[in-house]
Amino acid sequence: MSEWEITIGLEVHAQINSQAKLFSSAPTKFGAEPNTQLALLDVAFPGMLPVVNKECVEQAVRAALGLGCEINLVSRFDRKNYFYPDLPQGYQISQFEYPIATNGSIEIDLEDGKSRTINLERLHIEQDAGKNIHIEGAGLGQNKSYVDLNRSGIGLMEIVSKPEMHSALEAQEYVRKLRAILRYLNACDGNMEQGSLRADVNVSVAKKGDELGTRCEIKNLNSIKYIGAAAQYEAARQIELIENGGKVEQETRLFDIASGRTRTMRSKEDAHDYRYFPDPDLPLLVLEQKRVDELKASLPELPDEKKERLQTDYGLSAYDASVLIVDAARADYFEAVAKKLAPARVNPKLAANWVLGELMGFLNKAEIAIEDNPISAKALAELILRISENVISGKIAKSVFEEMTQTGNSADEIIARSGLKQISDKGEIESICDSIIEQNLDKVAQLSQKPKMLGWFVGEVMKATQGKANPKLVNDILCTKLKQD
Amino acid sequence: MNSISDYRKLLLSKEISAQELTEDFLVKIKDAAPLNAYIEVCEESAITQAKASDERIAKGRARALEGMPLGVKDLFCTKNIRTTAASKILENFVPEYESTVTQKLLDEGAVFLGKLNMDEFAMGSSNKTSFWGKVINPWRNDDEVPLSPGGSSGGSAAAVAANLCVAALGTDTGGSVRQPASLTGTVGLKPSYGRCSRWGVIAFASSLDQAGILANSVEDAAELLNVIAGPDSKDATSSAVPVPDFTKPLIDNRKLRIGVAKEYQTDSDLLEKAKGWFADDGAEIVEVSLPHTKYALPVYYIIAPAEASSNLARYDGVRYGRRVESSSLTNMYSETRSAGFGDEVKRRILIGTYVLSSGYYDAYYLKAQKVRKIIIDEFAAVFEKVDVLLTPTTQNDAFVLDKEYEPLEMFMNDVFTVPASLAGLPAISVPAGLSDKGLPLGLQLVAPSFQEEVLLMAARRMEKAAGFSERPKNWWSAK
């Protein structure tokens, strides 16, 4: 495999987060009863005309600015013509020759904190199509197909990358970061299961140093997992094909989730001629530089900016920062906790560990979104503070946390009620150590040959105190006592 | 012949009721069945509307067109009234919405007598392509052979000429209001592109379609233009240019400069006569040249079919209209459209698909749009020197209906009207005289964009000078 270079380019379709559709005033909410969110235009009744939704345009501009694109102040809507039941007009209003934005880039985070820049070709706006639902044996043993046009006409941003990714993992990271950027901007909700974000993956293979191979496009992948699996399978398929003397044909393929394989959807011969031409119902889309500047000035902090800032402001590692920024809510939560701990000068890394470790572990297991997190920043900060103050050990804190999630009580309440307060009283620990030493003089004798027996003594003291003794103190005190012998 | 203003006086003074007036027209329409001008006659709803108008008149709340019986070309979507675009594929389509233009007429109290026949999807200049059968021109020459009223607004023009409505709505894409006006001795007005909303007008060629008016006089056309003009937020191509009162003649003492282009030639001597009328009226006749005129027709017959091929893709039997059930999706599409569209429509869809197709787009569509720009600029340059252009509307008078014509021959009917369509300019055909066969011929005036006031001013003068008052002899009544 190492002599082969895999090249991947992605075309991501992201639904624009807006009240109404791109050219009609129908609502865009997901999950409504079929064919209830329609304007006459979305059903393509005779005589209907599109009028562009300014909110959609501005959302697309914000997204493009967040991706570092150049905004084209003049862009144009073109018609992409083809017949399909989910496309009522018989054409999709898109942007072909003059998109609203070009260039741009996304920085993807790889393992061990490294990153790579993937360049973008363009971002343009277009209509989404409706949904076809095929039901086998629906009526009288016949297969029937149904068309739900709720989605027809919803605004989409199509974001096209340059073919610069070289592994399935990079492709996945790209989509993760793109999704995060769009969510930070609130330009798209990034909900892949609901179809708000979909990707077409273009894969080609070539021997290292050779020109790019023929690419195949795998359409409509709606999970990061499948994007990786499809890219991986397709690259392997192409390599095997070539190694066996075959030739890769340019074609459009579909990923079959059940088998994990890609299969032909249509070949180059069946490829549509879309007969693109400027939509005569719409004027040129003209933006004012002043407005673009206003939108740019009001963008929120973006993932990569936040990642840098978390490292400089809180001393976090690049890796920790990159995991925190995946979700703006997660990063915000961390900062809230860290800020509460700041007066006590607690190391922010502790907060990062707790957010990324215990908290995310709990939320993921219970399938709770960070937005619905029952542990407030104040509550978690309090818990972490008690560790830092040596009131409880880190280990005890984990059980306190668990009880917090189950009862909703605060750390202090739980600590007080269950008497979990760490024993830090020197005298108390000394007397417990003394009694353990007295009861195990034989082990004390073995210490000179087995210095690591010290750990056993520490463990016994911890057991005797139900884990509440301050482990460091125990260690120090035992060290002193046992060395004396 | 009563004008809109005459009828208004009669109605307001209650010399005649709106109901009586409407019923009169309904009788005339029944009587004129041989002309086949109407696809749908709205007897019940027209009388209901008329009665409502009478009530308003009685209460002194009459609006601009209260009780005025009009005909509407079947290309306008009229709520709860079947709208077919004269096509089999829409033979059972009843819109649940009203086009902006017809709504404006209703808002002024107009009564809709019915939907007027036309060439299928507005494609044609003969009204022979309608699914509902040909329209016959009320004008006949001595040999009594049926003649075409022109098209695509053939039904509208025939209805006005035969007094089957006070005035009618049509649409004009390449001449579909002006050419039939010329062949039926009526006034046909095409406003500037963007002057009237296209919302609810079944689209043929989006960058060319405009609502138009067929009427008995320039004044009547101005009355209707007042009502139907204006911007529409639902139509992104409609213009926000303010709408003046077109019935108020421009108080303009300037000497009109009338341009006559050497590229617009016919055998008829009407054009010379008209130059004389204007000269006598104190206008200056200026010889001009529009060298790219000869490209206008080919440019039109590339752009219009291209846009149509895309606009008509929605007629696929999936959501409304006729569907031919079939074994596969592709078969359903092709069988539905093959059965539902007539030959001319198919011809234009094929041409349009071809000129947009990969490998041909640059040579045809793109090139045509570039030449269109040259034509637009050419007009603009000429309008620096003249106020309006005077041209023939058609090369010939009404042609024989039951004869086979080559498609290209039919296309030539539009040669004088298409240039103004491509440039989006307002234009009007005014009846100017009779041909040697005793059939009407019109002359066309063209003005710069959004200068309908100047256009109407010149048109009023020409109408007065021409003094055309002939009407077709009624040969169609049963008695």
The geometry of chain A reads as elongated
Number of DSSP strand runs of chain A: 17
Span of the ends, CA to CA of chain A? 62 Å
Instruction: Report helical residue fraction of chain B.
Output: 25-40%
Characterize the largest beta sheet of chain A: strand count, sense, and whether it forms a barrel. Answer: 10 strands, mixed
Q: Outline the low-pLDDT stretches of chain A.
A: none
Give the averaged pLDDT of chain B, no decimals.
95
Tally of helical segments of chain B:
15
Instruction: State Rg of chain A.
Output: 30 Å
Distance from N terminus to C terminus of chain B (CA atoms, Å) equals: 22 Å
Helices and strands of chain B, in N-to-C order? HHEHEHEHEHEEHEHEHHHHEHHEEH
Give me the side-by-side strand order of the main sheet of chain B: 1-3-2-4-6-5-10-11-9-7-8
- Which residue ranges of chain B are poorly predicted, with pLDDT under 50 across at least 5 consecutive positions? none
Major interchain interface with per-chain residue totals: A-B, 29 and 42 residues
Q: In percent terms, what proportion of residues of chain B is strand?
A: 5-15%
Integer average pLDDT of chain A:
91
Oligomer: heterodimer
Helix content of chain A: 25-40%
Rg value of chain B: 21 Å
Mind explaining what this structure looks like?
The complex is a heterodimer of chains A (485) and B (479). Chain A has 485 residues and is an alpha+beta fold. Chain A contains 15 helices and 17 strands. In chain A, strands 1, 2, 6, 7, 8, 11, 12, 13, 14 and 15 form a ten-stranded mixed β-sheet that branches. Chain A is elongated. Chain A starts with a strand and ends with a helix. The mean pLDDT of chain A is 91. With 479 residues, chain B is of the alpha/beta class. Chain B is built from 15 helices and eleven strands. In chain B, α9 crosses α11 and α9 packs across α12. The longest helix of chain B has 21 residues. The radius of gyration of chain B is 21 Å and the shape is globular. The model of chain B has no long low-confidence stretch (mean pLDDT 95). Chains A and B meet through loops of A and α9 of B.
